[in-house]
Design a protein that fits this description.
heterodimer; A: 341 residues; alpha/beta; eight-stranded mixed sheet; globular; B: 622 residues; Pyruvate-ferredoxin Oxidoreductase, domain 3; Rossmann fold; seven-stranded mixed sheet; 21 strands; 19% strand
């Protein structure tokens, strides 16, 4: 986030004249709209906003946002974005990547941009498949995913993007999904966070991995399967209308969560855990929660800012330059020299 | 006239001062030979001699002590005449242990002087060096002069007052040896003493011990003069052009040139690098120049290093990255993006022996194909090569100029030899370089429309900084539409854009190619590029002195070639191209100029010897 003058814009101001080239029905459309809806709410300035992406379906994103955009090469967007932020820390940078781009070919760069804590929003569209290359399994594909490259089903274990981000040292980890009405709020929280803000956005690839997130993202029964986290609020889920409310309780002795029933709204009596987004251990537990026995944790899982990389680099540069002679002639003649008469 | 290698050792020319002397310091990689050589170089420069050096060290940081592969050497050639190379064969070999003697003895001129530390010629060290008997005692060194004495013991004696253990005391051995060398060539010790005091300012007892060792070595020379082959030699200074001088290595020069280039462009510089031999020294130098608007970024890998630099260029700084062969290979895809997005970028390649990991600390010129052709698609990049440590400074400025004046990545080729070697350098006046100040686009350039790919008369597109109001646009690696830069896969557009990118690079203005030594036409033209400049120049000069019709031209601009190149080469009956590869520039010349360029190649990890080149020239003229 930047402390710059807020600019008044509308959703329309963030649309480009380029024809959007995603498959009809792709979850990317919903994410694009959510971002275009969020940017005016942030008071973002199109001239000062920069979308940087790698390669893949998700990485076409910058072409459709009326701001500065750089569609780079496969997996390396974090490195370009780091250079951009070091050259101009005032730019508001959004990184767009996918599960293949960010966690396979670009896993190394994603790790380092997170550990360095370069101030930007990193949106990883996770559709658990390679879309643009026609449907191969990806590093987040579930075991036994049948794809052109794994006709008998994949045998390797998927990686968990949020666990990866936390492990790499991320100071902000959040989750949302393409058609969720809460996605703009998650994006706003990410933007408000100073530092590398990692957002995993589950995205439906309707061609190669259709409805793979339906078990928690489908509207029907969603309340039982989505745990929307809010800092300082109890971890509750379930049906408000029927009053069948459940919560997560910390089983401290065994260091794990358990699902408990909340009777008459008395979550304290049920021992439901209050979400503390600044608690790193809690975040680790939440991103590792097995879906099925537990709901899918969504929203801001972790948010505990630390000094950003670019501010540290700028400060060091200022300290090192203080009172130093900047005459090039003197620099060239530095060291032991001699004069020939 | 004989070639230089067969000359009498310089020190044997009784009664006359030699015009050049070659000294090689050799020892264990932990013996501080590079430091000794560096300081001896400084004293040589201060004495006003011309010089050239060749540091030759193993890839291992601390190879097992006493082993043959752990030998580190530093050779210096200095004289009262112009010096072009580090010398074919040493006149003096300082051998700090049996392994150093064994590895370096073959190079020593017959009749040359060996200075050896008997204290290290123990049974154990002789075994490690695979000597069956002690060469200092078995008469096998008879064709050389031998001066063997216990430098180890003499050093321990010299520093005994400083309360150091034997191990620490022996660390001063190199300074004792340097002291002796300073005496031999009648050099002032004070600059070295000042340097030791400054280097060890936080450990004055270490500084004092080293100074005591230095003085003791020097005193030993004075007292031993009466006996044996050791005598003092005067090498007269070379009258040089008046001005301020310093010694400079290629790595220092490229760093300074980049700083100067960025200033001439009026831009802050961003340097993205990743540790790799022999290129890391550039990152180290620039990391200390923050006050000159330099940001250095040690990236997570070679790819991130170049990508961050492209990101910085996109944001309006001068992006620079640097590496050696294997790292350059990793950067290839990103270079293509810089070509496609037409952003300025300087890529410095300090070449080393390849392929793969190859010979990390040895020199080679085998990345020329990679520089010129090594990317997917038609991705032309201008390539510049530096011929000496001092020349890199100007080449770096030239690379910056082309990068910003044509909005293109530029590859600057140096090599391990240039990076590490030192030479006296006349400090240039920064004001003598014409500035090439960058102007960013600040308003729409086609009425009320922005055309990010609208070209000027040089084929250059505008540079637009993100953050500029009203000029939002998108760029990327997908083929761009002429003018707008929007995605466009259409056949006619790809043809037009491929042509535009090629024409832009082909049209870069580079100075005409000149003959360096000799005539504008004749029987044989020796064509060089890069760090072979010194040996080719000397070999051609020597041959011309013997009446041979041979000339020398040395290319700085590899791609595009100077416009008159073909005409120049065709004025000679034969063209010989010596290269430290299997003939890469020869291929470019044949392809671009359709001339019958003949290769003369070497890939031993060592620079050309003058004698080798002279023989090749004689052969070509038969």
């Amino acid at each position: 986030m930047n402390e710059l003058t807020k600019v008044e814009t509308t959703l329309k101001d963030w649309e480009t004249d380029q024809e959007v080239r995603w498959c009809p029905g792709c979850g990317d459309y919903a994410i694009l709209k959510a971002v275009q809806r969020t940017l005016p709410q942030l008071g973002a300035d199109p001239a000062n906003t920069c979308f940087i992406s790698g390669i893949g379906c998700s990485s076409r994103f910058p072409y459709y946002i009326e701001s500065y955009g750089f569609h780079t090469i496969h997996g390396r967007a974090p490195a370009f974005a780091t250079g951009v932020k070091l050259a101009n820390p005032d730019l508001d940078v959004w990184l767009v990547t996918g599960d293949g781009d960010g966690l396979s070919i670009g896993g190394n760069h994603l790790m380092h941009v997170l550990r360095r804590n370069v101030n930007m929003q990193i949106m990883l569209f996770n559709n658990e498949i390679y879309g643009l290359t026609k449907g191969q399994y990806s590093p987040t594909s579930r075991e036994n995913t049948r794809s052109p490259s794994t006709p008998l089903g994949s045998v390797d274990h998927p990686t968990n993007p949020c666990a990866f981000a936390l492990g790499a040292g991320a100071r902000f980890v959040a989750r949302g999904f393409d058609v969720s009405k809460n996605l703009p709020d998650v994006l706003k929280a990410a933007h408000a966070h100073k530092g590398a803000a990692f957002i995993e956005i589950f995205q439906n690839c309707i061609v190669y991995n259709k409805d793979v997130f339906d078990d928690f993202a489908a509207p029907k029964g969603a309340e039982d399967r989505q745990l929307w986290l809010t800092h300082g609020e109890p971890m509750l889920f379930g049906n408000q209308k029927t009053g069948e409310i459940k919560g997560l309780k910390l089983d401290a002795a065994n260091f794990r969560f358990e699902v408990v029933d909340v009777v008459d709204g008395d979550w304290q009596a049920a021992g439901v855990q209050v979400h503390d987004a600044t608690n790193r251990m809690l975040a680790h537990m939440l991103v590792e929660l097995p879906f099925g026995p537990f709901p899918m944790p969504l929203g801001v899982i972790y948010d505990d800012p630390a000094p950003t990389y670019e501010s540290a680099v700028m400060a060091e540069k200022a300290r090192a330059s203080e009172g130093k002679d900047t005459s090039l002639a003197k620099l060239l003649a530095k060291g032991q020299s001699w004069t020939v008469e | 006239m004989a070639t230089q290698a067969a000359d009498k050792p310089a020190l044997k020319t009784e009664g006359t001062a030699p015009d050049a002397v070659v000294v090689r310091f050799a020892g264990d990689s932990g013996d501080g030979m590079q430091l000794t050589g560096g300081q001896f170089t400084l004293s040589t420069a201060l004495a006003g001699n011309d010089l050239a050096t060749f540091p030759d060290f193993p890839a291992e940081i601390r190879a097992p002590q006493g082993t043959l592969f752990g030998v580190s050497a530093f050779q210096i050639n200095f004289g009262s005449r112009e010096i072009n190379t580090a010398g074919d064969a040493p006149d003096v070999l300082v051998a700090m242990n049996p392994a150093a003697l064994k590895v370096n003895l073959d190079a020593l001129k017959p009749g040359g002087l060996i200075i050896a530390d008997t204290g290290e010629f123990t049974k154990r060290n002789l075994d490690k060096a695979k000597y069956d008997s002690n060469p200092l005692e078995d008469g096998s060194l008879a064709k050389w002069d031998l001066l063997a004495f216990d430098i180890s013991a003499l050093t321990i004696e010299a520093v005994k007052d400083f309360g150091l253990g034997n191990k620490d005391a022996l660390r001063s051995k190199n300074m004792w040896t340097l002291g002796l060398a300073l005496w031999m060539f009648d050099r002032d010790r004070q600059p070295i003493i000042d340097w030791l005091k400054s280097k060890f300012r936080n450990k004055p007892e270490i500084a004092d011990a080293n100074i005591a060792a230095l003085n003791a070595g020097h005193a030993y020379g004075e007292t031993a003069e009466l006996s044996g082959p050791l005598r003092q030699v005067q090498v007269a200074p070379l009258p040089a052009e008046p001005g301020l001088y310093r010694t400079i290595t290629g790595a220092e020069a490229v760093s300074l040139g980049l700083v100067a280039g960025a200033q001439l462009a009026g831009l802050p510089m961003f340097f993205g690098g990743y540790p790799i031999t022999p290129a890391s020294a550039i990152l180290h130098h620039l990391a200390r120049l923050k006050e000159f608007g330099v940001t250095t970024f040690q990236a997570e890998d070679e790819i991130a290093a170049i990508c961050s630099a492209i990101g910085a260029s996109y944001a309006g700084q001068l992006g620079v990255t640097s590496s050696s062969g294997p790292g350059i290979a990793l950067k290839g895809e990103a270079m293509g993006l810089a070509v496609m997005t037409e952003l300025p970028l300087v890529i410095v390649n300090s070449q080393r022996g390849g392929p793969s990991t190859g010979l990390p600390t040895k020199t080679e010129q085998s990345d020329l194909y990679q520089a010129v052709y090594g990317r997917n698609g038609d991705a032309p990049i201008p390539v510049i090569s530096a011929s000496s440590p001092g020349d890199v400074f100007e080449c770096a400025i030239e690379a910056c100029r082309i990068a910003v004046e044509y909005m293109t990545p530029v590859m600057l080729l140096t090599d391990g030899y240039i990076a590490n070697a030192a030479e006296p350098w006349k400090v240039p006046d920064p004001d003598s370089f014409a500035p090439f100040k960058v102007e960013f686009l600040t308003e729409k350039n086609n009425g009320d429309q922005l055309l990010p790919y609208k070209r000027d008369e040089n084929g250059k597109r505008p540079w637009i900084k993100p953050g500029t109001p009203g000029l939002m646009h998108r760029i990327g690696g997908i083929e761009k539409q002429e003018g707008t830069g929007n995605i466009d896969y259409s056949p006619e557009n790809h043809q037009a854009m491929t042509d535009a990118r090629k024409d832009k690079i082909d049209g870069i203005s580079v100075p005409d190619q000149q003959v360096t030594v000799g005539n504008d036409s004749g029987k044989l033209l020796v064509v060089g590029w890069g760090s072979t400049f010194g040996p080719i120049r000397r070999a051609v000069s020597n041959c011309r002195a013997r009446g041979l019709d041979v000339s020398h031209t040395h290319f700085r601009h590899i791609w595009p070639l100077p416009a008159n190149s073909g005409e120049l080469l065709r004025r000679f009956d034969k063209v010989l191209v010596p290269e430290m590869n299997t003939g890469q520039f020869k291929t470019v010349l044949r392809d671009q100029l359709l001339v019958d360029a003949q290769p003369y190649t070497k890939t031993s990890g060592q620079p050309f010897k003058i004698a080798e080149l002279e023989a090749a020239i004689e052969e070509a003229l038969k």
